[in-house]
Amino acid sequence: LNKRAGDRGQWASKREYILVVAGNVVGLGNVWRFPYLCYKNGGGAFLVPYGLLAVVVGIPLFLLESSVGQYTQEGFITCWRKMCPLAQGELMCDEIYYIIIQVWALLYLVFSFRSQLPWASCENTWNTGKVTMFDSLTNQTVLINTTSAATEFWERRVLGMSGGIEDLGSVKWELALCLLASWIFCYFSIWKGVRSSGKVAYFTAPFPYVMLLILLIRGLTLPGAWDGIYYYLYPDLTRLANLEVWIEAGSQILFSFSLTAGSLNVLGSYNEYNNNCYKDCFCLCLLNSGTSFVAGFVVFSVLGFMAHEQGVTVDNVAESGPGLAFIVYPQATAMMPLPQFWTVCFFLMLILLTVDTHFVIVESFITTVSDLFPKWFRAPVRHEIFVLIICVSSFLIHLTLVTEGGIYIFQLIDFYGSTRVCQNFMAICECLAVGWIFGADRFSNIIEDMTGQRPSVFFKLCWKYIIPLLSLISFILYLVDYKHLKINDWYTYPDWAYALGWTMTLSSVLMVPLWAAGQMCLTAGTFKQVSIHLLQPK
C-alpha cells in the first residue's frame, strides 16, 4: 500500500481531504434544491423523512464508499477489482454538465458590476416591452404580462433560447468565454492531482460559508423575511402520508451527499490507510445537512421579502433550480438597497459552490482512468498532458451547452443523465457487492483495522437490507410514475431526444449486468469455478 500511495500521491494533510470532500458534497443541491423541497413537501415535516433517511441511507453509504476507496487505494472501477471483480461494471453517476451552472453564474457576476442591473429594468434591447415590473416609488406591482424583466434577461439575453433542441443555433460568445475561463481554472486546480486540488480547496471550500453568513444576516433583517421562513418551516404533517415526499427526501440525500457518484471512493483513496474515515463520515454528513438547513433561511427570507414587496404570497415566488438562482433571487436582490453588492455575494457563493464539485468530478474521472492504465498516465509529464486533453476535449463538447439551444440539452442531461434510476441502481449494486459478496462482517473488520473503531451492527443492517430495499422501491416507483420531460409546461422534446435521454440513463444501469455477463463468458472454467473466481477479492 505504501508503494502504491507513493505512485498515486496522497493528501498533504488531513485538513486538505476534509476541505475537498466538504467542497464536493456541499454544493448547489444545498442551496437551490433542499429549501424548495422542504417547502413543497410539508415544511418542517419534511425534516422527518430527510433526517431518518440521512441516518439509514446517507451516513452508511457515505461510510461504505469512502472506506472502500481508503482500503483499496484505487479509483472507482479498479477498487471493485480488488473487492468484487464481478462489480467492475459499476460506473460513475456524475453531473458532467455541472460546469454550465458555473458559467451562467460567472456571466451574471460580470453583469452585477454595472451601475444599473440589467434584469432590474425592461428598457433593454432584449425586452419585449410586455413585462411585470415592480414600482419602488408606489410599492405596487405593474402587471403588464405574465413574464418579468428577470425572466426576459435570463431567457432572451443570457440564453438566447431557440425554439427547441432541434434548433441549436449559434454559440453565445460571452458564455463560451466564461466556459473557457472555468475550464482553465479547473485545469490548474487539478493538473498536479491532489497536490494542487488540496491547496485550491483552502479558498474554495470555506469562502462560500462567508458569503452564506453575509446573505443570512441580510435576509433575516429584510421586511417580510419571517413570512418566508414560516412557509419554509411550517409543518404540514399530513404530507408525511404521501410516499412521494419520502422518495424526494431519499433522492435529495443521494444527490447532496454525492453518493453513487464515485467521487467519495476516489477522494478516500488518497487518504492514509489508518485515517479515521468513520469519524470523518459523521462530521461531513452533519456539515452537509446543516448547510442545507441554514441555506433554507437564506433563500426563504429573501423570497419572503420579495413577496412582501410585491404584495403576493410566498408560494407565488417560490422556485427551485435555475429558476431560483437566475430569475427569482436576482430579481429579489434588485429590490434591496445596494443591489450590486448582494448580487455579487450571491453569485460568488454560487460559483465557489460549483467550482469544488466540478474539479472533483473531473479529478475522479482522471484518477479512475489513470488507475486503469497506471503506466500510461502516472508519469509526471504524461499526467499533465492527459489532464489537458481531458479539459480541452470537455470544453469543446460543452460548447453545445452554450448555444442558443443549449438549455434544452442541459435539461435533458439533468433529467436523464443523473436521474435517481442510476443512483438507486448503483446503491443496490454497491450494497450487494460489499454487504453480501465481499461480506459485511469482513468489511466491518477492515474499517476497524483502519480506524480503530468498529461500526455498529446497525451499519451492517443498512448495507445488507435497508438500503437495497429502499433503493429498489424508489427504482420501481420511478419507472411506474415516469413522465416525459417538458420545459415550462409547453415544450415537448422530439422522440429522438427522449430516446437519447433513456440511452444516457441505461448506459450506466446496463453496464453492470453486461460487464458481469461478459466476464462470466470470457473467463475459462466451469460455471462454479468462474463464479468463485469473479466473486473472490483480489
TrEMBL record:
Residues reported in the UniProt entry to bind Na(+): G23, V26, N30, S256, N288, L353, D356
UniProt KW keywords: Membrane, Metal-binding, Sodium, Symport, Transmembrane, Transmembrane helix, Transport
Keyword match Transmembrane helix: yes
Membrane topology according to the record: Multi-pass membrane protein
Domain of life: Eukaryota
Residues passing through the membrane, by range: 17-34, 46-64, 96-113, 171-190, 210-233, 253-270, 282-307, 341-366, 386-411, 423-440, 461-480, 500-518
Family indicated by similarity: Belongs to the sodium:neurotransmitter symporter (SNF) (TC 2.A.22) family.
Name the record gives this protein: Transporter
Species assigned in the record: Dicentrarchus labrax (European seabass)
